[in-house]
Amino acid sequence: xxxxxxxxxxxxxxxxxxxxxxxxxxxxxxxxxxxxxxxxxxxxxxxxxxxxxxxxxxxxxxxxxxxxxxxxxxxxxxxxxxxxxxxxxxxxx
Length: 93
Hints:
By secondary structure, the protein is an alpha+beta fold. It has helices at residues 2-16, 21-24, and strands spanning 29-33, 37-41, 43-49, 53-58, 61-75, 79-92. Strands 1-2-6-5-4-3 form a six-stranded antiparallel beta sheet, with no helix packed on it.
């Protein structure tokens, strides 16, 4: 219950001051360029990495990228870019 109350407080603050919710609520931000590149901000690490699948830990669940010839182009503490033949991206919680 405490986590929900904290999230509601932060969301209310973000709404009141018109601040980006991804920053205030630690939500993942996804940018996709065609079917060949995607980048994620606010990830919490790699769970699985193969040529066919990349699973990332995010606040509240996982982001799964599926395709072929997938590679991690770059990675920082909070951002990661994946390239290859991307067929599907989905959120699991």
